């Protein structure tokens, strides 16, 4: 686990109250699950391991999350919410719609950098839990679609189905993040971000005078 993530985990575990309420237990279990999945792998982590690391009773753990897939889904949802918050804040930080994708890409890359050690969980969830009832990336796609519709109304983005465009945009970002994770150096991060910005601008933004 990256130093920042480990320190955040250690701080949470050391400062939590000795007798936790249900929400405190849920957060402790999620922190422990994320840490163990990242360090020992999904298959190499048991529910008993998670309960022991979170310092909660096994029965309490199962009342919160009936199995490992349920915990993994909750971790993915929390990670997706962090990405959406960063993306939305950056997108709204610029007034000109044509320029909004650039800070959005930077924010997504920065968020991935902070969570580098647990980023494989994002891909793992898609591989293990993509079902009719839980679709990883769905919330992110809906957020992108909403932003795109707003840009279309402003006359800055190309015509077309916003949700289909959001699926394409999400795939581009996911592919870029996978390419960065394969070589997580600052130089490659800069290269991936630059290529994503160029792709978004050429694919979605109406050129001046068009």
Would you give an account of this structure?
With 210 residues, this protein is mostly helical. It has ten helices and no strands. It has two domains: 3-64, Arc Repressor Mutant, subunit A; 68-204, Tetracycline Repressor, domain 2, CATH 1.10.357.10. Helix content is 72%, strand content 0%. α2 (22-40) crosses α3 and α5 packs antiparallel against α6 (101-114).
Structural class assignment: mainly alpha
The ordered H/E elements are: HHHHHHHHHH
Low-confidence stretches: 1-9
Question: Largest sheet at a glance?
Answer: none
Q: Provide the CATH top-level class of the largest domain.
A: Mainly Alpha
User: At CATH's second level, what is the architecture of the largest domain?
Assistant: Orthogonal Bundle
CATH superfamily of the largest domain: Tetracycline Repressor, domain 2
Give the percentage of residues in beta strands. under 5%
Give the total of domains. Answer: 2
Task: Provide the residue-averaged pLDDT.
Answer: 87
Helix content: over 70%
**Helical run tally:** 10
Briefly, what is this?
The chain is mainly α and 210 residues long. Helices cover 72% and strands 0% of the residues.
């Amino acid at each position: 686990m990256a130093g920042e993530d480990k320190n955040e985990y250690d701080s949470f575990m050391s400062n939590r109250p000795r007798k936790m309420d249900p929400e405190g237990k849920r957060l402790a279990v999620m922190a422990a699950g994320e840490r163990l999945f990242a360090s020992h792998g999904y298959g190499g982590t048991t529910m008993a391991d998670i309960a022991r690391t979170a310092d909660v009773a096994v029965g309490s753990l199962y009342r919160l999350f009936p199995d490992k897939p349920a915990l993994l889904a909750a971790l993915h949802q929390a990670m997706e919410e962090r990405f959406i918050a960063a993306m939305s804040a950056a997108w709204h930080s610029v007034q000109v719609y044509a320029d909004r994708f650039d800070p959005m890409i930077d924010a997504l890359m920065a968020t991935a950098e902070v969570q580098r050690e647990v980023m494989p969980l994002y891909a793992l969830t898609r591989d293990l839990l993509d079902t009719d009832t839980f679709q990883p990336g769905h919330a992110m796609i809906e957020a992108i679609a909403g932003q795109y519709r707003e840009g279309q109304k402003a006359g800055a983005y190309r015509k077309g189905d916003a949700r289909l465009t959001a699926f394409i945009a999400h795939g581009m970002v996911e592919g870029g993040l996978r390419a960065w994770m394969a070589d997580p150096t600052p130089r490659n991060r800069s290269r991936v971000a630059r290529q994503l910005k160029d792709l978004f601008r050429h694919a979605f933004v109406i050129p001046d005078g068009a």
